[in-house]
Amino acid sequence: MRRRSAALITALMASLAVGASLPEAGGEPPASHETLHQQGVVRSGSRPLAGAEVTLLQAGDRFGGRARPLARGRSDAKGRFRLAYRAPHNPDAVLYVTADTGPRGHRQPRAAHRVEPVRLVAMLGAHRRPGKVVLNERTTVAAGFAMAQFTHGGQVAGRSPGLQNAAAVSHNLADVTDGSAARLLTTAPNGDQTSTLRAFNTLADILTGCTAGETCGTLFDLAAHPGAAAPRETFQAVADIARLPGNNAAALYALADHRTVYRPRLETAPAAWTLALRYTGNGHELDGPGNVAFDARGTAWIGNNYRFNPDPLQSTCGSRILSRLTPTGEDVPGAPYRGGGLYGVGFGTTIDPRGHVWAANFGFQGTGCPLDASRLYRSVSEFTPNGRPLSPPRGWRFGDILQPQGTQADRDGNVWIANCGGRSVTRIPHGDARRARNIAPGGDRLVKPFGITVDTRGRAWVTGNGSNNVMMLSPQGRPMRTVSDGGIKRPMGVASDSLGNVWVANGGAVVAPCEGTTPAMVAEAIKDIVTRDVDASVTMIRPDGSTPAKPFVNDGLFLPWGIAVDGNDTVWVANFGGHRVANLCGARESACPEGLHTGDPISPAATGYPEQGLERNTAVQIDPSGNVWLANNWRDVPVQTNPGGREMVVFVGLAAPVRTPLLGAPQHL
């Protein structure tokens, strides 16, 4: 009888531990008296982890804030748990589950302030409450990368919409309902077409060494950033790796030796531990994406060069659609959008303070298209935030627009357009297209204007790809200064930082395809380039127009084209060759890894961040979650009947988030 009573008491105590919940923190009453339940299982691979302390948390709503525990419990002998909690007051709250345990799932008596080295995590996200959740190494890698810019000291916190979007992106890496790799990651155009799935599984295998109690200390030391404290548990270690993926890459790979839990995996060490996903929208819309702009919700608006056709040998004309993707890569309902004079949009897509979207109609089309592009490359198209065209069927044609490329809205709502074929800039005051004015410096002062940005003072800076210079215009559009020093050579993209500096991508061998230069000529000029061109570089222009004596050079720069600045003022460069994106230390050196100075490469100097899923990239932009988006604009071998690439490539959690829409200089979200 005593044995039976003891067994009943033990069972009762175990059930209380598994189902234990915490009251709402603070004095705010719960939004609902409804009690919700979250159940799941904690595993390492297929092996259950018993005795793990499982916590359901609500992420903090500001950078550096603290997460709020909603419920706690313990996993049973089969790794199972069940938590009861009250619904959060905020319907957009991001929830996630952590499981803290010692190696092999054996908990030791907890000392004061002791931190267990193994923390497994699964993001539930906002508006998503799976009935069952699995926490394992895969879900932890997915959470650590997607939430890398919102994770500090083991706490997840950040502002909307970046936090919510990042949680959603984590589900593109891991399926939290069963702990497997997510379908988007395992299928084309990802899957075996890129290295991301193999890198993802290898990272998960690295964590199994710590879960097994063999490599925790080494993992934490290798994940630590130079000069910074080492992480104390696995989730923070993953986030630290994601934020500086080139740090100790080979040594981290060695931790996966002889581990076979997750397959397929890498066979050699990567140059950097990046995870990049390819997005295709509805699968038959992207063809030559030229640039991307993010609205206030973090959705991606993308102009396309060509009308979609999967066959590069069939001639295609200019695209007449404007794509709009969710942060997770699907079409926003109702997208893509048509009308408004869209035709062959190039490098020019921007969003103004009202949320209106502007797309510059360069008139791209494949060889053999029967249309006369010269009748179509003289306009810009305008759309409302919900995709309704405001421009007429032939586009807005005021201001002598001619083969427009770079397009940028500023904080006052002015829209600036670089007329690549017109040696001029068109300024649309306060977004009123009928008042557009053409600014032509005259002569050879600005040849093949291509990229354009606006600095912290409202001044516009435009690159002259054919005149090897950058021209500064006053906020009203008056030419003020021309900069040709600092190694400026065939400049393409240009971006400003929060300190008033301007950063220029020097294409070196890249000649802008306008004013008599055709895309076929560009293809011929670059086809035999297999190493970095001697003039490929980045130039920084200070607010007073001066430059360092020499440009910044490293082998991460390979036919530089697009350039962007993130929320920490570090610089990102898209390359039209080399299958790589480069990251440079910006002017705010305190935001760079210890020991680096302005212009030094943060990405590996010999390779940049390489990625099999990249082709010939034009644009690079940063979203509110810190994901780095690149446009696969051309195929590696660009057959001119239809040379367009068909994906956006998104590096997960790699950069400091940016408040969107981007209106010149970036602001940290």
TrEMBL record:
Keyword Signal set for record: yes
Keyword Signal: yes
SUPFAM superfamilies attached to this UniProt entry: NHL repeat
Domain of life: Bacteria
Region (Disordered): 24-47
Signal peptide (from-to): 1-20
InterPro entries associated with the record: 6-blade_b-propeller_TolB-like, NHL_repeat, TRIM-NHL_E3_ligases
Keywords, ordered alphabetically: Repeat, Signal
PANTHER family linked: E3 UBIQUITIN-PROTEIN LIGASE NHLRC1-RELATED, PROTEIN LIN-41
Stated name of the protein: SMP-30/Gluconolactonase/LRE-like region domain-containing protein
Organism: Streptomyces actuosus
